[in-house]
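INTERNAL AUDIT FORM
Audit reference: QA-55
Scope: verify that the stored structure record matches its stored sequence.
Auditor: D.O.
Record contents follow.
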Amino acid sequence: MRLSQIFLVCLICFLILILSLWYFPIPENAAGSVHPTYDTMLHSGDNVLASTTTRVLSFLFGLGVITMFYFFILFGADRKKSTGKLRSWINFGFVIYLIVYTLSFFSYLNYETTGHNNFFFGWPTPTAWMIYGMWSAPLILVFIYVIKFKDWILDEEDEAKFQSILAGRKERSAK
């Protein structure tokens, strides 16, 4: 299957997931309620994670968002010059991102069931995963893009062709 066909299948699955989120009942206080002490702060209800359906669908929704991010990067990198090693690095970065997301999600579930007493570098464990893990996992893709830009994305030949197109446009607009 072509990349666009796989993307379409994933997009349809994501749409089905969104429709199923719409179909199942929303847990009480899912969007938060006013904190009893601090009026400007919201906190979620006690039963937001009580539903297994909510847990599974929310995890799958996060996977869907990351998968869309992955496909957009693949579409941007889909060139004859860059499909080999670049695609391998994108796949590697995507797998790392999925692992970190999964660890972050299950860390949050564990944090909710154990009573909020685990901390890492001064943060609750799920927050630490979000700050240190989810923030830095996509950096693999950014570093590869920056380091290999001239080889895989825009080499000297493509840049010269682009400059000639710009020169032609300037010449036409000057007339």
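Auditor finding: record pair retrieved intact. The mean pLDDT is 83.
Action required: none
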